[in-house]
Amino acid sequence: MPGCFSDSAKRIRIDTIEDIRRRLLRIYSEKINLRASRSRKKALVNTYLSKLDKLYEAIASSIGRCARLPPLDAVHPFYREIINIATKQKYEDTVRGCRRAIYIITGIMRDYRKKIAKAEDPKEAKRYIREFIGRTLSILKRKVRGLELLKESIKEVGRSPCIEEDLVKIVVAGMPQVGKSTLIARISSAKPEISPFPFTTKKVIVGHGELDGYRYMAIDTPGILDREISEMNEIELKAVSALKHLSDRVVFMIDPRKSSYYSLDQQMRVLASVENVLGIERGKIYVAINKIDIASREEIHAAIDAVQRHGYDRYVLISAKHGTGVNDLLKRVIGIQIN
Q1: Range of the domain at 90
Q2: Which of 97, 121, 304, 325 lies 20 to 30 Å from 112, alpha-carbon distance?
Q3: Is 176 contained in some domain?
Q4: What is the distance between the alpha carbons of residues 237 and 47, in angstroms, rounded to a whole number?
Q5: Where are the beta strands (DSSP E) in the chain?
Q6: What pLDDT digit, counting tens, does each position of 274-300 carry?
Q7: Averaged pLDDT score across all residues of the chain
Q8: How far apart are CA 243 and CA 78, in angstroms?
């Protein structure tokens, strides 16, 4: 499955059982014009057979889109997490149910074609059409559960970023108000493609950028890594789990000022949590000590000391607002030799 499953998802329309019911009733209510034939009975049979075919085509079209969805193991792990959360782990069951329903309904349609072909009057043929609709909807309710959740999950994937496998993916993490969004805007300026999408109740910001011919994805994580892992709920943990599938590198941002929203100790604890939760090697985590344009020399040295005490020797002093040190940071993260 191509990495950019989100583009494909934008073109997929999943119908709920209620959507299908309304469509079938609309087809059923359409006025019948008897098709030309040498006998009225033959015209009646042909007309109702055409209506049956139209009903079946509507069902096959709606349920077929569900039945043709790929297995989860063929989907990028990031999209897989989004789908699993939105469908409450019922994606595979729903897709299998659609495939089973199509098989059963196809058999029923063939039976009703035979019955309508033998019908003696319009009332009998019309009754068979009603029976076909009723049995079809009953089968869908019994065999296909979770279409509403599946519909929302596909919409969610369609709103998610396009994952380009050949690009370095940089996750920007840190506590609130440390300058993550400012950095994302700064390093994505070469190709301003910043787009928010909802991940459950959270937001993820994805931008694309380029430096010295190297293209990359930059991913902001507001509201996800801003408290202890032990305090996170199930949804937050799954959101973090999804992000780990995107993190080739992590830039962890620190606000060194004493007037910042969180103390250095708090920020160091979250830094350790990022390493544990994202499951990323310490060598792929780069610390950015931000706001050096407004922090004092004493505050900057205290931040450097805190970072080194916690075993992180990869740090860069930056001002995301003014761009100071940002190119050096990017070069280190991407692996470009610094002159």
Answers
A1: 5-157
A2: 97
A3: yes
A4: 57
A5: 168-173, 191-199, 202-211, 214-220, 249-254, 285-289, 315-317
A6: 887 777 777 889 999 999 999 999 999
A7: 86
A8: 7
